[in-house]
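Page 47, continued from p. 46.
Same chain as before, 386 aa.
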Amino acid sequence: MSVSFPASGRPDAIPSAHRAYLDRRYFLSLNGLRFLCIVAVMWHHAPAKELVDGAQILLRGFVGVDFFFVLSGFLITTLLLREERRNGRISLAGFYRRRALRILPVYLLLVTAISAYWIGVKGQQDLIGLVPYYYAFLANFLKGDIPLLSITWSLSVEEQYYLIWPALLVLLPALVRLRAGLLAVLIGICLLAMLGLAEWLGLPRLETRHAVFVLPGMSYMAILCGSLTALLLDDRAGFRPLWRLCGWRGAPLAWFAALALYLQLTPESLLGWPTLGMDMLMALCLASLVVREDHILRPVMTLAPVARVGEISYGLYLYHLIGLHIANEGLRAAGLAGPGAQWAATLVYPLVSVVLAEASFRWFEGFFLSLKSHDGSGRGKPAPSP
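Result:
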């Protein structure tokens, strides 16, 4: 569907832009954003990163996970709000069915295969006690990890969010201010927890042999910021200020540049207020990609290879440590060592990871994704599921 965007100075600009946003069934640039997120994460784990001595931003590839969280919070909330408007209600059963079909098959395959390898083949019996935490999506509370499964902490954060936030949307009246107020309070609690004030807040803390259960504020803050962005954009009054900030064609370039500058200039530790500032900038970057389709970065964000990597980014995220392990072992067997081996692994392991993720998407995940269309609730989806 072709949509024209009126100049921001015209009286009808905001209502027209908001209608176009609500009518859009697919956000074309979001696979490009997924591409940027997964590239950042893969660079964070690249062996050659240790050889880089320069810009601080090059040491912060881990924030790609935070951007994934912002994106996930935005998409899930947008899907639920549009379902509520379309059907008059949110089907929790339908939501959890779609999430299970997207998340569980490849996740359970990975956890089972890697656990069996390290415990059964490698004989590390001491890792057995960790396995239930992965299956229960509690890995973000673990003190240690099974090798190659350390990245699954983020999936635990996602699943905990999926469990709670949709149910809150169903229980809360459809009042934007009430829902936005709740999100603001939750973001504030996460910030205080991150600042070490969990005890002052009265937040429970439970420690077991393998895990410490306490609110990890940084993880949840990003996903809540994405949810708040979706809630504001869905409402015309909330859309208005975001359109003025993000509705001009060059906005994505400006906001991504601001984010890059922020990551370069902020203190070494991002914990606390720096995290909130980063998450807010990420939300503005995201908003600038979705409020209009003809933005300045669209040609780059929609390039076929970029979009394809973004489309398979979930599997790529789960498999990339395996790709890194394969590359390192292969180069070690070939007798390579030192900085040359580190750069070689950095170049080879993304290729191995893409092959694994592409094969998984085509011949494993694709089967379960095809089942999502059978529940009839896919009409009006704004974008593919994260």
